[in-house]
Amino acid sequence: MIEAVGLTKQYGAKTAVDNLSFQVRPGHVTGFLGPNGSGKSTTMRMILGLDRPTAGHVTIGGHPFRQLPNAPRQVGALLDAKAVHGGRSARNHLLSLAQLAGIPAQRVDEVLGVVGLQDVARRRSNGFSLGMGQRLGIAAALLGDPQVLLFDEPVNGLDPEGILWVRNLMKKLASEGRTVFVSSHLMSEMALTADHLIVIGRGRLLADMSVTDFISANSADFARVRTPQTDPAQREKLTTALTEAGGGVMPEPDGALRVTGLALPRISDLAHEADIRLWELSPHQASLEEAYMRMTQSAVDYRSTDDRLAHLQPPAAPYQLPEQQGPVIPEVPQQGWYAPPPPGQNPYATPAAPVAPAAPAVPPQNAPAAPRTMQPQPQSPQNAEDAR
Length: 388
Hints:
By secondary structure, the protein is of the alpha/beta class. Among the domains are: 2-74 and 146-216, Rossmann fold, CATH 3.40.50.300; 222-284, Elongation Factor G (Translational Gtpase), domain 3 (Alpha-Beta Plaits, 2-Layer Sandwich), CATH 3.30.70.870. The protein is built from ten helices and 13 strands. It comes from Streptomyces laurentii. Belongs to the ABC transporter superfamily. Residues 2-227 form the ABC transporter domain.
């Protein structure tokens, strides 16, 4: 088991990890999520003893990593798949690691077979593709047959077959009672792989719960209803009936209706009473991606300024701990996509029209152009790039 208590890491004036406490238990695949710069990589480096915490501590099996006897046999990790001497073959790279840890050479050939690199074992690693490099990094993590495994973006560069293989591998390792800690930005993959989630933002803990509980806590279930497209009047009539019954109705781009606050049998009864024919009535649950976007939208540090609709987005709320957050969660307006409403809130009241930004003044035709200036950017302390 991995346990972090009050884990804090500062690089000069920048706090990469701020009083972070969590547990990663064996027998489950635990996903580690957060925006870029949230401190995931720094946290993993502190777990592995590569960075010293400014405050707090983290242990593996009750001991700091540096105090573990023959750590490669107890902990395996993939943090950087490029951390390989390009002039060595895949087999020689793994063989050097095995000799340092007292692992038999036979194990090298075993893990090469597990990751599917047995046919290229004697090729130099500098000729490997990104996906092959990822497989070699996973092989190095499995080399000592450890009980604790950490993976940072393990499916980066893999093809669909490789992604499926990694997913099944993680589940198999967890089913054997091992502790599996996986960091990834692929929400769809995490939804299929992880049993538990630890979510951080700006170095602080946002959520520590199962995937199912995380989605339920940050989204609302809804029903998808569709009427015949040849009769728009029935759609309007159904909208009125559902609204009067206390439901929330939101039109979708394809003509369907997204309904919240009413159970499917109640929606069916209302449609029958109003003599409205339904072409679709189906239950839906928000995806992990939608729930994640809702929770972390105020903790994102890096946003593109090349967005013509940026002025329509509400300003990010000041960061607060989860227990301090109020029930109102701002939406993320995106064309063709609707964020699910927060639990217990009806977001369907007509909002005030956004105020269009003032048009920039047009200089006279013969006036000299104003010199272009660049906004000075604060210099990041050294090694701050590790806090992503």
